[in-house]
């Protein structure tokens, strides 16, 4: 069924975590008969196990709903769900670009919080119509008056009588939300007769169909079995099918300007289709792509190794997972201590956690993860061209280095005013340089220039802890800047353990080294003889502890041979150390 453009509405729901975004989406789908009572489940749009476990959307979804108003006119409501974590900030911006308006949901028991402000700012920068909604009004702890005042501070153009009061859980007031979508969110613009331009705002891989892209048609028409070109990657293919999610896939003959749906591209290489790319017709192409596209580069790198699984089985699982997550990059890697594995590139530490959990839940594979790090730009002596290093093991010897630079980001931290001092102390402890300080309603937005390495590990969690969950973080890439970095190596029983090598700032090296050897002393499984643990920087041991033997007096026959003693002294001892995941988890807390 084809709808006229003035009867189409494309919108998203944005909110702080646990403010009722997924619940409201469920009610909208139920009240438009998109899903029946029998089919209805909580968090209908979150189909990954990790999404339900963390209460955070990881992959965008787009569902077509049909709304019949009191005049018996039928409207097409395209609900585009958006990711809800800082690691997926680019995907959020692309998803919002596919909409014409947003529902801004605020919990009446908690008021406006940091993620509310961050999402509001993204929607406003995109020029979208924003409908303010106060949720959970039937809760005994609800403070509707205070929440209303906070919303008016956030955006003075909001009118008190325009703020909707609902309970998404019970469905109270949701009918007014459906009317507001019809009346306030503008119908999509776009010439159906113009050359095709369509925005790719998400994609997934099907082993039989190839890459399936979720698209918003901006101009023109996209028909089934026609040739299209992806303008950024210059990949051409004949699509196999076009259609919409209702929420199950429903094939159609044509998608027109204003529609949101899916495109079975026929492309078998998942790396070829990028989020933010523009689709056009090969025969009559558009003159220029849609603005805003950028290559998504990994911000964090870490080693992934199978714990109790055959390498071939692990490799198959990694390959399948990468097909459905275009932001995850990997390449083979071998460690003397851990054996064969992969070097993975991730959007952030939460993305790394999601990959680990998906390997466990979807493939039953336990993974050992090494210390995450970023990319380093190194200028060597007597060499003009810099080299880029992603793996700490490949970091050159200090005597050959002329200059080390690391990538920085502009980190925007949105927080309540009374928490500013604590957040500033945290940011400065991570080598942050204050660039800007602004107010937005009852919140403060502090912008810092910070190294990726300082926010990659546990900065987001520590930010949540310091602010009691009220602060949020968004990042924009900056350039490489000089840093006084050193390579910190760990030797156990005089054998270098490559998987424990990290790159850190010189001023933090001694503290981190001492903490590392202390933790390793307690966590590395003991042997019959005592084993020294040494932290080495630039050829010098800066911290040392001894792992005690299993028993105080070695049993007969366990005396270390002269050959082994010589190997120890020469630093060529053979690695025979078991490293449990607890070792790497402990190291993550050292930053």
UniProtKB/TrEMBL annotation:
Q: Which reaction does it catalyse?
A: GTP + H2O = GDP + phosphate + H(+)
Q: Which PROSITE patterns match?
A: G_TR_2 (PS51722)
Keyword Nuclease listed? The answer is no
Under InterPro entries, the record lists: EF-4, EFG_III/V, EFG_V-like, LepA_C_sf, LepA_CTD, LepA_IV, P-loop_NTPase, Small_GTP-bd
Q: SMART domains given for it?
A: EFG_C
Listed binding positions for GTP are 18-23, 135-138
Gene Ontology CC: one annotated term? plasma membrane
Keywords of the record: Cell membrane, GTP-binding, Hydrolase, Membrane, Nucleotide-binding, Protein biosynthesis
The family assignment reads: Belongs to the TRAFAC class translation factor GTPase superfamily. Classic translation factor GTPase family. LepA subfamily.
Q: Under which name does UniProt file this protein?
A: Elongation factor 4
Q: Could you tell me which species this protein originates from?
A: Weissella kandleri
